[in-house]
Amino acid sequence: MLAPYVELAEEAAAQALGPARYRAEFESGQRLTREAATRLALNESVKPESDTDHREDGALGRREADVARLVAEGMSNKQIAARLFISERTVDSHVRSILNKLGFNSRAQIAGWVVANANPG
Description:
Elements: H1 3-17, H2 19-30, H3 34-41, H4 62-72, H5 77-84, H6 88-102, H7 107-116
């Protein structure tokens, strides 16, 4: 339905930027979080906020990283809430934020990301 319009837009952008720059910009855009892409599209600031639990650059805040590690350990939201002394609703919010920031759809993907990004030693 929209495919012809998308194709025309891609061709126009590639022509305006040149094929190499278009590919580089397209790949850069694919790495944006949904929120960052929306901010960019609306011409809003994409700078991260000073509160490390609500960063806009795709990096996880301290508490989100804590939750991600516990997800990787196989804990449920209830277990994570008890461990971190926060509500299950807050854990759910952190999990949704992590999924959004990393562009994932499942807790298993979060676990894989934690393992791949673990600091050895």
